[in-house]
Amino acid sequence: MSSFQTILLAAVLPPFLLILYIWWKDRQQPEPFGQLAQGFLFGILSAIIAVVLESGISMLHLAPDVPASFLQATWKAFVGAAIPEEAAKLFMLWLLLRHNQYFDERFDGIVYATCVGMGFAATENIIYLLDNMDTWESVAIGRALFAVPGHFLFAVSMGYFYSMVHFSDMNGRKAYRIFCVPVLLHGIYDSLLFMNGLNTMWSGILLICFYIFCLKMLRYGRRRIAEQLKRDRHQATIIQMNEETTI
Length: 247
Prior knowledge:
Blueprint: H1 3-25, H2 33-59, H3 70-97, H4 106-131, H5 136-166, H6 177-196, H7 203-246
Helix pairs in contact: 1-4, 1-5, 2-3, 2-4, 3-4, 3-6, 4-5, 5-6, 5-7, 6-7
């Protein structure tokens, strides 16, 4: 196996495993593999859109390329990364689901959002690893442990609220959460990393805060997954009871 093939495998494998995990969770009515592949492709396209948006933000100097303070780090995290990236993912998720006949369960929103998010993460992984050829192994490990699961959990929150609005489990006026919650999670995640990169006396504390935040986000994502699976099981039970009553 060539060096490039090894790097490609290291970039794609973690996102692929998380797609398999969320697909395995969707045991009641699993989505067709073709739909998962389409979602992954849409995620790749969302990464391209995000690169264009971020390039525009950089050219217009709307966010600092190298933050020099905690405020600039936070601004760069939200304006330079979280907002354009989550906007690109949401746009592609909307395109994927607007006429999708397979989007018939609440958990499906999480499944499809995960596919989009993992397509994005895989593309981002390839870019980062190719930009760091000398240290690609350590970069791949770090991204597999934090960046890829981060994008996974941002996607879980986006898919969760997308389904909540789509299936009328949530007031339509709260649809902003589909976008705002992933942006908030993403922005805080990047802010802590950018702040830690300033190498101040607070670096150790910021790193601990980052680990705690990742743990909290993991628990949040697991809870959202369990909630939607429970709602689908409850809905399936109601449908079955109605069918038995009709018969």
